[in-house]
Prior knowledge:
It contains three helices and seven strands.
Amino acid sequence: MPGLDPGIHGNLERSRQEGVDGRLKPGHDVKKTMARMTGNLARLVAAILFALMPLSAALAEGFVAGTEDVPLMPGLAPVPGSSIVFDKPEGRIVEAQATGKVTRAAARAFYGASLPQLGWTAAGADAWRREGEVLRLDYREERGTLTLGFTLSPQ
């Protein structure tokens, strides 16, 4: 078939002039794909860390027993049997205690920084307010151990 030969060579000449390279380059597409995936993964991790950053201090040791919005300071542990929870139509009432080898100043600094991140606003000395509730913190130190009492009640 005499007509096919000139057409094939004509297309080859045109592709060389346009800079089209039809040769197989192993790994060429894989490198681009991996670079794209690495960039996307880095952006995803950064977005997750950014989203969790405000709560990182608050989530360090969990939450005070009976609450989901009062963080437990690192270094404090719940006192077994100390938590009492009442859920009433007027609001919840929670009393709990935690103890540990932390200072009163460190505890005040921790709660002063983390409670506002969770929507609490200062309402006097060792008291916080949020959405119709009041949180009172009672600090008792004895022989290097701090016992912190938490009382949450309706306003």
